[in-house]
Amino acid sequence: MDGLTKGNSDLAVSVFPDVDASIQRIELLRETYSVAMRKAHPAAADFTLARWLAFPHILVSGRGETQTPLDRSLAQRGLHRRVGMVLPSFLMVPPLLLASDMIAMLPSRCLPSNTADDFAVFAPPIPAEGFPLHLAWHNRRRGDAGVQHVATMIRDLLKPE
Question: pLDDT truncated to tens, each residue of the chain (161 aa)?
Fold first, then answer.
């Protein structure tokens, strides 16, 4: 959001939980999570909460954090997961899943196009709240025809079907 405020960016697509009055924000879509692993993963045949927790997880965090709301939810149930690796981007996860016995919980739109061929995908075994993806711009760009045109194109591309 700093780029929008300082004028270094005209538009931003991200998760913006709170914005100040100078930022316009609209929700583009609501993302949900899926659990993914390689198709021949040992937990794929009989996927359960216990099997899910028995294998190391890949966690995605741009800040390197190893605790997420999911971990807090697990702790409230007296459970925990093993984080085997922390990565800065969801794009890095699929190749590592294919080459290991790790498991990841990914936003559904981050699953690769070859999902059915290479991956076993399941609903999370415990409730996992999704998140909104926002499009935002600074108020000074509200009347900018070019910025608003691109914003409309982005909204149209991501419109739920």
Answer: 777 888 788 999 988 888 888 888 999 999 999 999 999 999 999 999 999 999 999 999 888 888 888 899 999 999 999 999 999 999 999 999 999 999 999 998 888 887 888 999 999 999 988 899 999 998 888 888 999 999 999 999 887 66
Q: How many CA atoms lie within 13 A of 143 on its CB side?
A: 1
Task: Give ∠ CA 52-55-59 in degrees, rounded to 5.
Answer: 85
- What is the C-alpha radius of gyration for the chain, rounded to an integer number of angstroms? 18
E strands of 71-139, at which residues?
83-87, 103-107, 119-122, 131-138
For residues 90 and 58, give the distance between their C-alpha atoms in angstroms, rounded to a whole number.
10
Distance CA 67, CA 120 (A): 25
Distance CA 156, CA 114 (A): 24
Domains and CATH numbers, the chain: 2-30+131-157 (3.40.190.10), 33-122 (3.40.190.10)
The amino acid at residue 116 is A
3-state secondary structure of 100: coil
